[in-house]
TrEMBL record:
<feature type="domain" description="WW">
    <location>
        <begin position="57"/>
        <end position="90"/>
    </location>
</feature>
<dbReference type="InterPro" id="IPR052895">
    <property type="entry name" value="HetReg/Transcr_Mod"/>
</dbReference>
<protein>
    <submittedName>
        <fullName>Related to heterokaryon incompatibility protein</fullName>
    </submittedName>
</protein>
<dbReference type="InterPro" id="IPR010730">
    <property type="entry name" value="HET"/>
</dbReference>
<dbReference type="InterPro" id="IPR001202">
    <property type="entry name" value="WW_dom"/>
</dbReference>
<feature type="compositionally biased region" description="Pro residues">
    <location>
        <begin position="98"/>
        <end position="107"/>
    </location>
</feature>
<dbReference type="Pfam" id="PF06985">
    <property type="entry name" value="HET"/>
</dbReference>
<feature type="region of interest" description="Disordered">
    <location>
        <begin position="85"/>
        <end position="107"/>
    </location>
</feature>
Length: 725
């Protein structure tokens, strides 16, 4: 007779907890399942962040304050690069600047650890012995020889059995929450309710146990190496890197400083991060929701997760690591983010690369880290077709954000799709990389849309160019990509002027980098346009000689080119502009600036007059809302910095006066009844964000009112309606 679950009295409030009974390595797994209540999470997301601007006022000249990833204060003397946990004034009273304590749950929270692990194949199973409903007493403890009458077998995967065997304590019970056991997976109604409780379950756990799997010959070396590296580095809340005040290796945090690791150590690190754990959908929210006490466990080895976070971020910036490993760190880096700082767009996009047995979990598996305004619009239902789950997620995101950024995640690769072209296919990985972190196609605008049942979405925007010619898309591998990119060079590259001004050469170079040069991104790691131009002419331009070595593809000057051009097509427009299009772009397609979209969107007209979404694109000279507002005055240029959350902050610099402002010089002065508000970004809000209030009715919007359709049309800027199908 197998173990039978007793229904939860109230699935919206109750949970099951597992008491893993003590035992040795060779003893059978024995446990007790009990029911208890878990209060809801308090409303809102409290960051624990200090007001750094106020603390800065207390510092002597030459000192600056920052906060670590865990919101701990850190002080730096900029001239000497001295880092300290202590304020330079020993009389400083930090208590007067401490943020308010987070709100407490409405009821008592049981003490338990939450397990984060890979389920593994259901076909490869073992059994745990679970006390039946009549055996919930403290007298049940210790191992037994064979299944006693009051224990019943419960089938679990081999992966879970390995984890429990390793986590079991020798002399006391361990209280755990484990999804595969504590949720009755056969009860779909219970699953639907419990999925909505994941945020509370992992946030309120005493700590999260991140189980990577059993030990391998080199996993111990990888664990200790990453633990030590993480202890030498500190990461600020906007991901800037510093040497830890306690560091022995004071320079390891720097991107240009190589780490003294042997080839075998790098192999061990790579093997650890290629474990299946890092591919799973559910682990993303489980890790992001974990408190700072979370631990990483691999066989008998443990390390604080906070040290892994620092190590992952540090390694991802190193200049001297192989591109494949760098890409892996950039993939895993999403686990290091705080959910209050992740846009909904990025959360859904990063699930494309994660694996799950039920594709609905590409949405349901991240509800714990999505903004409440989105998650409350989603009711998990594992009976719905996947197409409906994805469409509902798009519409919920649209209503929550008033942005059309999810259009940027669409890629039309064939003549037909199982759902509307404006709904991203999160079931598969993207072919190309996202452009939107580097683009500003419609300014700080909100979407203006209408959903027409069953599958039409009407949006507003402007056409910025018709595609005259599109190349074959660029290969994936870096060296092959560079060989391909060299064939894109337009005729007259070294002599002709560009349609938007300047030289054709500079326009081509900026296209290959999406404008990612130091002039536009002064706080980034990119070189100047002049440096990139010199490198290109010296090492890439001469197509009569093949590239002889793979080293050039690893050079920092061309790394971003291989990232941005991956699986993209080089396009020219009827108007003489050049750019990068999505992999499915064709001649005759139209590049459009859609209100509420950060990137230009390529549309293809359907026979009935509606349009299909082909994907996002970059047209050199049509960024920075140029397709809507026209070009910037000659003396103005956009500079992109980071705000306190690490999002891009677009500002405008006048090169005659050196004034740097957030005010777009093409826009008229803000007029009544609208006024700008100085507020913090809302957790999970749009990446491009501002706050304005209507003084007459109190309405608050997170977009510039001067980019509302009625305001644009008053200034003679005509908009077009596109019905997307």
């Amino acid at each position: 007779m197998a173990f039978i679950y007793r229904p939860l009295e109230n699935p919206r409030e109750d949970i099951r907890l597992l008491s893993l009974l003590p035992g040795g390595v060779d003893d059978p797994l024995q446990c007790i399942i009990r029911h208890t209540s878990l209060p809801d999470l308090p409303p809102g997301i409290v960051s624990g962040s200090y007001d750094i601007s106020e603390i800065q006022k207390t510092l002597p000249e030459g000192w600056s304050a920052t906060q670590t990833h865990e919101y701990r204060l850190m002080f730096e003397h900029e001239a000497t690069e001295t880092i300290s946990w202590s304020h330079p004034d020993p009389q400083f009273d930090h208590t007067q600047f401490e943020p308010p304590p987070p709100p407490q749950p409405a009821g008592p929270v049981p003490a338990y650890e939450a397990l984060s692990y890979v389920w593994g194949s259901a076909a490869d199973h073992q059994f745990a012995l679970v006390a039946n409903a009549g055996a919930h007493s403290n007298s049940v403890s210790g191992p037994h020889n064979g299944p006693p009458p009051d224990f019943l077998p419960l089938r679990i995967t081999r992966n879970l059995a390995e984890a429990l065997t390793s986590l079991r304590l020798p002399d006391e019970a361990r209280t755990l929450w484990i999804d595969a056991i504590c949720i009755n997976q056969e009860d779909k109604a219970e699953r639907n309710h419990q999925v909505l409780r994941m945020a509370a379950l992992y946030t309120m756990a005493r700590r999260v146990l991140i189980w990577l799997g059993p030990e391998s010959p080199d996993s111990g070396e990888a664990m200790s190496t990453l633990d030590y590296l993480g202890s030498q580095v500190e990461i600020s809340i906007n991901t800037a890197r510093f040497a830890s005040p306690d560091a022995v290796e004071k320079r390891w945090y720097r991107a240009e400083v190589p780490l003294p690791y042997s080839a075998s150590t790098w192999d061990a690190i790579q093997a650890l991060f290629w474990r299946p754990y890092f591919e799973r959908v559910w682990v993303t929210q489980e890790v992001i929701l974990a408190n700072p006490q979370a631990v990483v466990i691999c066989g008998p080895h443990e390390a604080p997760w906070r040290n892994f976070v620092r190590a992952i971020i540090c390694l991802g910036t190193k200049h001297d690591i192989a591109p494949g490993l760098r890409d892996r760190f950039n993939h895993i880096r999403t686990l290091t983010w705080k959910h209050s700082d992740i846009s909904l767009f990025l959360i859904l996009n990063m699930m494309r690369r994660q694996q799950c047995s039920d594709l609905r979990d590409k949405v349901y598996g991240v509800l714990g880290i999505t903004p409440p305004g989105f998650s409350r619009r989603i009711q998990p239902d594992y009976q719905l077709p996947i197409s409906e789950v994805f469409k509902n997620a798009f519409l919920a995101a649209l209503e929550h954000t008033n942005r059309l950024v999810l259009l940027q995640d669409c890629e039309l690769l064939g003549p037909s799709t199982p759902w509307p072209s404006w709904v991203p296919d999160w079931s598969v990985s993207r072919k190309s990389n996202l452009l939107s972190a580097f683009t500003f196609a419609s300014g700080i605008s909100r979407s203006h849309h209408r959903f027409i049942e069953p599958d039409t979405l009407e949006v507003l925007g402007r056409r910025v160019g018709r595609i005259r010619e599109a190349s074959a898309f660029c290969p994936d591998t870096p060296l092959a990509a560079l060989e391909h990119v060299r064939t894109w060079a337009p005729a007259g590259l070294l002599t002709e002027a560009y349609a938007a001004g300047g030289s054709l050469l500079d326009a081509f170079l900026l296209t290959l980098r999406l404008g990612y040069v130091r002039e536009r991104f002064p706080c980034g790691t990119a070189g100047t346009l002049a440096t990139w131009r010199e490198f290109f002419l010296d090492r890439l331009h001469n197509t009569s000689e093949p590239l002889q070595t793979d080293d050039i593809a690893h050079d920092g000057e061309v790394y971003w080119t291989t990232v941005f051009t991956k699986s993209r097509c080089f396009v020219t427009t009827d108007e003489g502009y050049i750019g990068l299009g999505p992999p499915g772009v064709m001649a005759g397609d139209v590049a459009c600036s859609i209100l509420g979209s950060n990137s230009l969107i390529v549309l293809r007209e359907a026979p009935d007059g509606r349009h299909r979404v082909v994907g996002e694109c970059y047209i050199q000279g049509m960024d920075d809302a140029t397709g809507i507002l026209g070009p910037l005055p000659d003396c103005w240029a956009v500079e992109v910095d980071k705000d306190s959350s690490g999002f891009g902050l677009h500002q405008f610099r006048n090169h005659h006066t050196d004034i740097l402002t957030s005010e777009d010089p093409r826009l008229p002065p803000l007029s009544p009844p609208w006024q700008a508000l100085e507020t913090e970004r809302e957790p999970g809000g749009p990446a491009i964000w501002a706050c304005y209030q209507n003084e007459l009715n109190g309405e608050v919007i997170h977009s510039d009112p001067r980019l509302l359709p009625e305001s644009l049309e008053e200034r003679g800027i005509e908009l077009e309606s596109f019905k997307l199908c």
